[in-house]
């Protein structure tokens, strides 16, 4: 994959970084600060970053974003991790994207949304990155600072829990 100009990276991935930050933070100013800091840090390192696929680029940007969020929590003496934070990670559009319009009845959508919210935040994030962002397990593991085997296990266990809760 040919390395695009950094301006193109920003325009192509600003929404991804914004929504990733929005899932962990509640204050709009904090979200904007994290997005800005993520792209500043990535701009400084972009020339030295060698990626072979779009997935590696996404993973790299989300890893930087996760570190910026962690730094923000530390700076504010708020020692919550993304996994420990009790933030609802799915909204209506995520649910519709996740199900790819297979569920059409309004009450079914509500039921799935309710069950998704019962999953742990990190499980919700893994499902969202795998289904909506179409990231590989390796890319998700890199973005979340975890091992690929752990991400796979959490993903499949989460899907099983979701299916069982819907039966």
How would you portray this structure in words?
With 167 residues, the protein is an all-alpha fold. It has 2 domains: 6-75, Orthogonal Bundle (Rna Polymerase Sigma Factor, Chain: A); 92-166, Arc Repressor Mutant, subunit A (Orthogonal Bundle), CATH 1.10.10. It is 69% helix and 0% strand. The protein is built from 8 helices and no strands. It has helices at residues 6-22, 28-45, 54-75, 92-99, 106-118, 121-131, 137-144, 148-166. Helix 1 (6-22) crosses helix 3 (54-75), helix 2 (28-45) packs across helix 3 (54-75) and helix 6 (121-131) crosses helix 8. It is globular, with a radius of gyration of 16 Å.
In short:
The chain has helices at 6-22, 28-45, 54-75, 92-99, 106-118, 121-131, 137-144, 148-166. It has 167 residues and is an all-alpha fold.
List keywords for this structure.
single chain; 167 residues; mainly alpha; Rna Polymerase Sigma Factor, Chain: A; Arc Repressor Mutant, subunit A; 2 domains; 69% helix; globular
